[in-house]
Design a protein that fits this description.
The structure is a homodimer. By secondary structure, chain A is an alpha+beta fold. Helix content of chain A is 17%, strand content 43%. Chain A is globular and about 45 Å long. Chains A, B: This is Pyridoxamine 5'-phosphate oxidase family protein. Chains A, B: It comes from Streptomyces chiangmaiensis.
């Protein structure tokens, strides 16, 4: 995380607890050599991996399958100037194992825009970082943890 | 924007109008060869450039000054499965011109965590893209525009 900006860093456990509270995050990757970012709903797997579900034909899937991506979620209260942001960084891969696909069909995220052929994408939680943003502490975030 | 995912694209004017409604977005860049993303409050300049204000000593400034970055903002209603996302992509640079700094001190964004020495960062609106996310249309977004 960045230093010299007065923000408190969160540990991995705190990050995953916050991430589990929100339904939507943003996938960050590189597209045609430019930074790209897109909100998506998601769920967390037991090990902290981020699970996405999208159309098999989408350009997003082609852009991220096999790449290192970041997945960010946050909750910011602009009036209180406070909030948190968590980022999971790791390799993204389309889930191809049939048993795993079957499990995720039952337990994974649902598509907001269902399409005939969908795939699950798993982002490995290789790096899980987070921070409190803004100057004041946020309700529900206990600084002593 | 991505095709084959059923989402409607927004034109530049629509994007800038939506961007002006929200106080916080996320800066996306590359850090130590990894994708990095961080929420920040911002304001829009008259030409659609994104203006940030941060500590001169922050690692963020060193990471983005002179680089092409993306700045994303969104509003997503998870219950309604709908919302929008806008991305401004362009070169980021610390504002060094004294007259320009003076103007931005009056009209630019305010820091949430003021620090003794602050700088303004300007992201040129070289590419302004946006989309409706989710399957339903969003109140306030008139598809005929």
């Amino acid at each position: 995380m960045y230093r010299n900006d007065g923000f408190r860093e969160l540990d991995r456990q705190e990050c995953l607890r916050l991430l589990a509270k929100v339904p939507v995050g943003r996938i960050v990757h590189t597209r045609q050599a430019l930074p790209a970012v897109l909100p998506l709903n998601f769920s967390l797997d037991g090990d902290g991996a981020v699970l996405l579900r999208t159309s098999a034909a989408s350009e997003l899937v082609r852009a991220i399958d096999g790449s290192v991506v970041a997945f960010e979620a946050d909750e910011v209260d602009a009036a209180a100037h406070s909030g948190w942001s968590v980022v999971v960084t790791g390799s993204a891969a389309v889930v191809t194992d049939p048993a795993e696909r079957e499990r995720l069909t039952r337990t994974g995220p649902r598509s907001w825009v269902p399409s005939p052929e969908e795939v699950f994408v798993r982002i490995e939680p290789e790096l899980v970082t987070g921070r409190v943003v803004g100057g004041r502490s946020l309700q529900g975030l206990d600084p002593s943890r």
